[in-house]
Amino acid sequence: MTELKQAIRNWGHELGFQQIGIAGIDIREDEERLMQWLQQQRHGAMGYMQRHGRMRARPQELLPGTLRVISARMDYLPPGTRAAYDILAQPALGYVSRYALGRDYHKLMRRRLARLTERIQSHSLALEQRAFVDSAPVLEKAFARNAGLGWIGKHTTLINRHAGSWFFLGEILTDLPLPADTPASAHCGSCHACIDICPTQAIVAPYELDARRCISYLTIELREAIPEEFRKAMGNRIYGCDDCQLVCPWNKFAQLSIEPDFMPRHGLDAAALTQLFAWSEAEFLTRTEGSAIRRIGHECWLRNIAVALGNAPTSPEVLAALHSRARHPSALVREHVQWAIAQHRDTP
């Protein structure tokens, strides 16, 4: 098993993963924290979190016979993009979370993990194995921590002391009794930069995130109206938010991705809000083909950009863009457009 474990690491590196670790399946403390989080309703409209409940911490219920979780990470920060802070400082541009600038990582990582699973199968007596990338109820950060890939930071994102936090996670559940790795120790110390920087104060305490306040949740998971109390704080963030990662001192060690598929597409690393707001639904579907962005749909895309346009400096171009959607068939879009127009009326 020790030799097989090293072979799995080698195969993982050949497939483009920067790190592979092995975790046991006992994460009872994380399970209890999850249940407390759900009881506090901090999952908001993400009903699937409630539906799966404790199963997220019990992979043996998801795949009977599971003994270990093989955790993998892949760097995604694309090289050659406009600096994130530059985009955030230019309110006429739309900020898209760095992970969503290129192709959808789910498919790429799932294919690689499937190939790794096949290789493990051909070199072992494994009977039960399944690979997942956000496609099953698994507490991936807890298992990744126990697999030695990093610690869960105060912003609740995994941090690796040699690679920061700009990476994706995936896992393989297996019935192989592989030697487990030593869980990673925490190194946030007294730093609270991520808590201080959060535009909507979604990190309500160290290691505690209220998703209902998080801009990533508001722009991606929420399908209803964005609460007005958060709209100004969203600034020009139209898909996700990276502020807590941008300010994390450990990301000075982050490595740029070597995957061509993670390179920005359609200029989304520095696109004008008015340009993006003009996309028809057909254009949206075409330009987000193979992208994680497509998942929110054209309606929420327009909703998010309307908020950003409401926060942009008043200009004839911005006002013309907003008025062009003032009679949109969607009540959701119309409401956010009306709010945005009102922001410009109130501008001195």
Automatic annotation (TrEMBL):
Catalytic residues, chain numbering: 134 (proton donor)
GO cellular component, one term: cytoplasm
Pfam families documented for this protein: Fer4_16, QueG_DUF1730
Binding positions for [4Fe-4S] cluster 1 per the UniProt entry: 188, 191, 194, 248
Family membership: Belongs to the QueG family.
Assembly description: Monomer.
Organism: Steroidobacter denitrificans
Cofactor entry: [4Fe-4S] cluster; cob(II)alamin
PROSITE patterns (UniProt xref): 4FE4S_FER_1, 4FE4S_FER_2
Catalytic activity: epoxyqueuosine(34) in tRNA + AH2 = queuosine(34) in tRNA + A + H2O
Single GO MF annotation: epoxyqueuosine reductase activity
Protein's recorded name: Epoxyqueuosine reductase
Predominant subcellular localization, coarse grouping: cytoplasm
Described purpose of this protein according to its UniProt entry: Catalyzes the conversion of epoxyqueuosine (oQ) to queuosine (Q), which is a hypermodified base found in the wobble positions of tRNA(Asp), tRNA(Asn), tRNA(His) and tRNA(Tyr).
Top-rank lineage group of the source organism: Bacteria
